[in-house]
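Whether sequence alone determines local backbone shape is best considered at the level of individual chains. The sequence in question and its structure tokens are set out directly beneath this paragraph.

===
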Amino acid sequence: MSATQIARLDLWIDPVFDRLVQAEPALSLKVLPALAGDARTAAGLAEAQAYHVSAAKDEVPRDWWVDAELLAACPQLLCVSSGGAGYDTVDVAACTEAGVAVVNQAGANAASVAEMTYALLLSLVKRLDASGAALRGGQSVSREALMGREIEGRVLGLVGIGEIGQRVARIAPAFGLQVLACDPLLSDAEIRERGAEPVDFDSLLARADIVSLHCPLNAETRGSFDTQAFARMKPGALFLSTARGGIHDEAALLAALESGHLHGAGLDVWTVEPPPADHGLLARADVVATYHTGGVTHEGRRKVAEGSARQLIAMLRGERPARLLNPQVWPRYLERLRAARA
């Protein structure tokens, strides 16, 4: 019987992924060009039983997103692994319809992203960009002209308290922060166990001095931070997102900052990544901006790659993985796996 094939695109990934797959005698690895319309990639995916795909929507050409069209062209595909906690490049419903099991790597880079949340917050309130620019520019300014603020005693509101959000919550007491959280997927008791006071969305907006997003991008959250949501935030509040571009309306955020209603934002994620250099948010001194690098650490990337490889290997052995996004597909998946081995 021929080796079972795992495919990935030739985007950067920690070498542990390839080492783990290649150490399995029954598996073979195909590394395919990440080029839109490339016939080699189409042919390679059509022959593959498993596919590791980057979760970064602006890295992966739409041709190679896992949607109904690609699934129809790849009838041998059994399982898909998203290379991150998010899965913007995978249509989970279409996979379920096709009998394809889908996993993500939730929690693998959670420490990295939680740390980035505080990096954005501290850079914003301590005015690190302005201070560094003054030093590098040889400007003679008084230290008071660069005066920042403390966060001790402030209220931090978390929209989502999953793997990343709960780490943010657990760090917060060290800074003297009170933590609120809303998460429709968790009970009040679970939110309390994760280190936050449970509140509804409107209460969080009204009470929080700092609002930080840690929810997935989906039909319910897309555009949820619009003009009305920003208007309901506490005057002078700060807004942070290390979640996904598209959850907050960038034009609405810019307007809330320009009006003075909000006093700053820290953004690691964008609707288009990277955003255009002339983006209005990038021109503001009260915005700290990063290149969607919250989870891009050596440790985080290694854990994501290792988790993806191990989950694909487990599924191809018939073992239920830890991060299965469509559990209802599992019985059908096992039937398809047995048929592929016959």
Summary: The CA atoms of residues 235 and 261 lie 5 Å apart.
